[in-house]
Structure formats: structure tokens, C-alpha cells
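Hey,
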Amino acid sequence: MGFIIALVSGALMSIQGVFNTDVTKATSMWVANCWVQITAFLVCLVAWFFTGRESFGKLFAIENKYVLLGGVIGAFITYTVIRSISSLGPAKAALLIVIAQLAVSYLIELFGLFGM
């Protein structure tokens, strides 16, 4: 099941990158990025409402506070994906993004970074 989910994730990332690049052409980088983050927030809020209502207060109990930077990193991911697709096209951008993901993931696992 994890294999299928990973394939779906990769496909959705490619489609999202193309969509976001198109939205950027019609608006601007930061308007598009705001739209992506706001709509993602709304989808997550609806999913949270229907699947369970764990307390947001648990966020403050997380020991390593740096892990809360995922949303900040997400904004920069959106920015860099849009920029790379607009410069290189979807295929070249995705290829380089996947290579970078593999390299960094390997280093994180190899050196046990971030508690992995």
C-alpha cells in the first residue's frame, strides 16, 4: 500500500507543480503561493473535522520545536517548484527535484539526522 501511495504522491506533486506554475503566470509568485497554502489549510481543516479532532494544543508539547517549521518549508517548496518548472519545464524540474529528494533523504537516513 505504501508503494501505491508513494506513486500517487509523486503524480500529484507533478500535477500540482504544473497547476501552481500556471496560477503564477496569471497572478504572481506570492499570490499563487498564498492560494496554495490557504486551500491546503482549508482541506486539512475539513479533513480534521471529519476524521477526528485531536487537540491543536498538542503542538506545544512537541519536544523538538524545529519540526514545526514544515509549513514554512512547504511555502518555499511551492516557490522553488514553481520557479523550476517555469525555467526548466515539468519533466526536467521533476527529475532534478527527485534526485535532490533522494540525495537528501539518503543523507538524513545515513547520518540519523532529525532523529531518523
